[in-house]
Each structure stands twice: as structure tokens, then as C-alpha cells.
Write a structure and sequence with these properties.
The complex is a heterodimer. Chain A contains 23 helices and 17 strands. By secondary structure, chain A is α+β, with helices and mostly antiparallel strands. Chain A folds into three domains: 203 residues, Aldehyde Ferredoxin Oxidoreductase,  A, domain 1; 173 residues, Aldehyde Ferredoxin Oxidoreductase Protein, subunit A, domain 2 (Orthogonal Bundle), CATH 1.10.569.10; 145 residues, Orthogonal Bundle (Aldehyde Ferredoxin Oxidoreductase Protein, subunit A, domain 3), CATH 1.10.599.10. In chain A, a hairpin with a 6-residue loop joins strand 4 and strand 5. Helices cover 27% and strands 25% of the residues of chain B. Chain B is built from seven helices and ten strands. Chain B has a five-stranded mixed sheet with strand order 7-10-1-8-9. A five-stranded mixed sheet of chain B has the order 2-6-5-3-4. Classes of the chains: A alpha+beta, B alpha+beta.
Chain lengths: 578, 212
Amino acid sequence: MDKILRINMGSEGGPKVTEEARGAYEGMGGRTLTSAIVSGEVPPLCHPLGEDNKLIIAPGLLSGTIASTSGRISVGCKSPLTGGIKEANSGGQASQVLARLGYGAIVLEGKPKDDNLYKIFINNDGVKISPDNSLKMLGNYDLVEKMKEEYGDKIACISIGPAGEMKLSAATVAFTDMELRPTRHAGRGGVGAVMGSKGVKVIVLDDTGMKMRAPKDPEKFREANKIFTEGLKKHPVTGEALPAYGTGVLTNVINEAGAYPTNNFKWGRFDNCSAISGEAEAEIEESRGGFTTHGCHRGCVIQCSGIYMDKDGQYLTKQPEYETVWAHGGNCGIDDLDAIAMMDRLDDDYGLDTIEMGATIGVAMEAGVAEFGDADAAINLIHEVGKGTPLGRILGNGAAVTGKVFGVERVPVVKGQAMPAYDPRAIQGIGVTYATSTMGADHTAGYAIATNILKVGGYVDPLKPEGQIELSRNLQIATAAIDSTGMCLFIAFPVLDQPETFQALIDMLNAFYGLNMTADDVTELGKKVLKMERDFNADAGFTAKHDRLPDFFMKEAFPPHNVTFQVKDEDLDRVFDW
Amino acid sequence: MKFLKKSDRIDFPEGRNTPCLLLTLKADMIPIFFQLLQKGFMVKTRVGCSIKIFLLEQLGLDPEYLKKRVQTVFLDSEPVDNIDTAIIKNGSVLALSAAMPGLLGAVLRRGSYYASMRSEISHKEEIESVPLQEGWVVVKLFNLLIRELGPIFLERGIWIKKNDLQGFFKKHLNGLKVGLESIRVDDEEYNLEKLSKMEWTSGEFFLKIRGV
């Protein structure tokens, strides 16, 4: 983790590899590191698919250690979808493997001078880059199978599907899971398109012969990890609800709250929601011999994922997550879990963001391209994207582009990025985060991370409506810091409810790096990250006008509560006053 | 964790003129019926009381279970912060869930630190008093509560709307073929074929599931 690997894809004579010490990036990981490199090295006005943009892939600070649930990896760049800074993160095996290989980040720079498609192999012996045009337009699943044939099954892959090669703004970067399937994705903001623009199809990692990263104080680290792990296991959310049902457990609850955007954000209640709930998903998985409790990487104790089998008992995809089931399900009026699982599989294979694609298909349905509820039509639209037809290329560039092409007014995006599965009229506090996040509409930008313990920004009365601005600010600060650790955001609940679990997290960081960090330092780190990102966006042309929700949220009352978004513009402009 | 109060063995009363459907089947098949509990079942009860009194005294939940497990409560789609003061009315829909993940899970919890983020839809205290009287409440169970309370409530018996029950049997009739011991509709023995051809004349049915 003490080296940064730079690969200049545009060098004379072919890609050039350099390894360097961290230097100014010492002590940074995950989102802090990706945002620091983007804000420090990428010209804010550059074209996102041009030679001046960089793609940074950075494990979290605790990745590659024995710390539980620490395998998140961040991908950063200037986003082709939003035009601003982007950090998208993912689970999978790569974070642990890359960290154990000793790299704090891989930075892809420049732009190839030829049309070749490259693969990169990294192991203990070094880095090999070779053109391999036989990989062109392969789906992620076939690609990984080819890599297994070539490099064996002790590898982890970071790859793009056809969507990334076509440089579509909804393209993802895929990461393989424990079974070496490309099911985990840095989904948001079109990071896959930037990888495609660098001419890189796949990065294969092999950490054979490498050991777990060693902490500065092994005894304290082991003890803190033990307390942290016990905290995750004993909490009802991370120890019971998530392992039993996965994130789909939220479906019924959000629907009951009338906050479940249905048929392209027309209303907040999907009638046949129980057919696509986490409970229904678990029942199907169990009855077909799949799994309801499964990790996305080794060392995860929450195990919120699962394996979804088709009607014949054959593997179809990993357990589709709440956001995916909503995007391809309720948002498109579809109540068939098998069809939704198929769309999840296709998104993973073509390398597409499930949230962006579901929202886009919802907009296309609004335009009359297909009927709401027509699962077969929705599946065909994803195939259009994978094949790169003219319609597919429109859809693959996301909801905003699709809405513009088809003249749709109700387009649920902020800064060009589609909104996730919570309507901001029902849950107005999340609307504040959607509007003001540096990333565009993003439900993970202001997660429920222990702001009560951190006391970020002072005490907020939870029952007073005016606390929304302050809470959103505090959540965004705290989340920016946690995104740097490599910890999964689902640690939020035990950290929120159990002060000893929060302290154990800080103790782990201190014991590993030999630091004396306090909760205040965590807050300062979060502020520093947000400031870098805000400054980049400002230099890229973003103003207060971009920190707004689309007009229809203020005009269309949202059933069943019949509310509009009420937060005033001047209040949104206060979010980053600290 | 104990789900119900120690001494309570509450049976829901069967409604007059409501057909009673009793299914006896292998215990491991009971989860098939959980989808009905997500959609909601009716409880004949005394309304005009608080949610807390309803859950403790009418449904018989254990106080500790209510405090620790039932973390998310909706009354007529509104997230409830105070179950002592939120009043059940005739026709109310009460949804119960354990603590949920994610920001929204945190936001929707009762008494949540993040409650202000959903203040526009939160349950507000009643201004007018609601008289104590007999009435009907629709109860929905979600996630962990289905697994824990579902089998108990199904054994007690629940009222289900005709359309929900019809739709359920249409979807699951084949799945019930293995493991089903007997079907009784009121005092008459049925089999699956007869059930599939049954005329659903009543608006509601009283459904009891007995696991063996």
C-alpha cells in the first residue's frame, strides 16, 4: 500500500509503467485518495474521455488486513455522466488483493495512440501490459472465463463490458467476487467509460505469495477488530436482517412509507411490492437451492448478498440488491423477480449501472418506447444497449440524455445522474443530499454514519424539521471519511447504535497506522474531502444552480402523502457552510 | 428473545358469517404464507387505543420484544415516533418492522436521530379524541417479524380479504401439493381441486394454518 502504480496508456511506443512512493498522498485511501488525485492532477475543464482525465482505482485504508468487512474499493475520475468529480465504490475481491500487492492506487493516464484493447496483469513479479484484441466486445462473464483459462483461478479481475468499450455514460467498472464472477460494480457516473477511453479492458490481479498487511501495533489491532466484529454480529441489522434478506429487506418498508418511486417517480406505492420484496427474494433463492446469506468478498461478516438461481436451479446472477430491484422493478412497474434478476445479469455482463439503467428505462417507458410493466420489453432495451444500436447508445448514456432525446419532462436526475430508490418528496432530508452531493443524485453520499457520536456540526434536534440541512451536511461529511477506510457502509447501524463499535473502528485505524486519531480528526478528514470535490466541481463550471432537484419535484404532489419538495433554495445553499 | 407475553394465549375470534379455512400442512411449508402477512391481514379489535396498548394487550406482544425488536412502525403509511400516543382507528393500517439498514432504515426508525429528514410524512399526534369501540385494523408484518410472529398469528387465525387469498392460491396451488395434510372450509373437508373450484362468495375469509 506504500506505492502508487501509474500506467500512461498514451506514451510513445506503448503503455508505460511507473511506480512511485505516495509522496503527497501519504495516509490516504479510498475516496480521499481518488478525489485528491483527481482534484490535484486532472484539469477540471478537460473532456472526461480525453487524454487529460485519469482513472484512479484505490483500496480503502484497511483493505488487505484482517479487519472485517474492509474490502471496499474506490474508483475516481472526472465523470462523463455528471461532468464533475466522481468516486464510485464497490465490493469484490480486488480491494484486498491490490492492497496486499502493495499498491495504494492504480492510476490510468493518457490515451492510447492506437485502437488496441489492452489487458494488464499484476502480480508479485510486476506489471505486464499486452494488447489483446480478442477481448473486444466480450461481456464481463465471458471475459473473466478467458482470464481464468489464461491466468488460473487465484486471480481477481477489474474489467469493463461492451458498454465501457463504447464509452457509454452508464458504463461500470466490474470487480469479481469470491466465486470469480463479475458481479460487483463501481456503478455510478460512467467510470467504465473512462476505463474504456484508456483502452484497458481488464486488469488481472494475482496476490499469490503475498501476505496480509501487518499493523504497527498487532495486539491493539487484533483486539479492536475483535470488538468491531462482535459489534457487527450482535446488531440486529448487520447480524440478522441483512444476512437473512439482503438489502431487499428495505422494499416493503420504503413502500409502506409511501417513498418508493413507482412508474418513473409518479407515485410512492407499488401495489404488488410484496412480490419483489427481500422476503420474496429470499423465499425464491432458498427454494431453488441458491443462497440468501453470502459475502461479496472474503472477510465480510455481514454477508448481505446471495445467489439467485433461475427456475431450473442454474446460477443466474448474484442476489439483486434493493436499488436494482427497485430500478428495474417498481420504477418500471415490473413485479417479476425472475425478469429483474435477468436484467441484473445483463447489466453486469454488459457493464451497466443498474440504477442508471432502471431509471433510464423508466424514462423511456414514460416516452412510450415501452409499456410500464412490460418485462420483456425492458430486457430487450438492455440488449439494445449491449449491441450498441442507435437506440441502445441513447439509453446507455443515461436518463438525462434519454429524457432529452424523447422530450420527457419527468426525468429524475441531479447533475445528470439518476436518482436512487427513495423519493425526495417523501424523505425530504435525502432530497437535500441528492441536490447538493458533489457526485450527483447519490443515496450513499450522506449515509447514516454516527453523526450523533461524531457530533459533526453540533447537536441537531431530531424532531425539528429545520434539522434537515444540518443532518445532510453532517452525513455527507461523515460518509466522505468512512469512504476512505474501505469499510462497507453497512457498518453504519452498529456504529450508530453502539459507541464501542465506533470506537473500535477508530482504534483499528490508529493501531494499524500508529496514529492517535480522534472523532474530530475523522470529521476534519470528511470536510477536507468534500472541499476538494466542491472546488473541483466549481472549477469545472458547477454553481449553486446545479445543487437543485428537477422542477417536477417542486410541482407534482407525490401520492400517497401528496407532498412536494419543500426545502428552499437558500437553505440548500447553506449545506456546505461550516 | 421472547415474542409474546408469558401468560398470554390470545386467539383471534372468528367472525360471524365469515368462512373459516383451516389448512394443516408440514411446518416447513408455513413460510409460503408469509407473503399474505406482508400484504396485510385484518384483526377485529378494540380501536381508539394507542399502538402500544394494541400491540401489548390485543396482539399479546412481549414488552421487551416490542421495545427492542419492533423498531419501525407505520400507521396509515406514516412513520410513528411515539407508540404511546399514536392512536389506532377503525380501518387503520399498522405495519411493523425490525430495524432496517441504510440511511432510510435509520431515518424511518421510531424516535430516530434522523427523524427530521422525513418530517413531512411523520405521524402527527391526533387533535381530536378517538372513541374506544370495536373495529377492524389491518396489520402488516415485515422481515424478521414475519419469521418470528408469522407462524403464531397464522396458527391463531387471520382474516384475509377474498382477493388476496384467491390470488395467493392461484399462485401457490401447485406448491401446496406436497406437504399438505388436510383442508377444511368451515366443517367440510376439501382437497386442492375442490378448493380451486370453490366459489369465493364472502368478502373475507378466516384463515388458520396448523403446522405438523
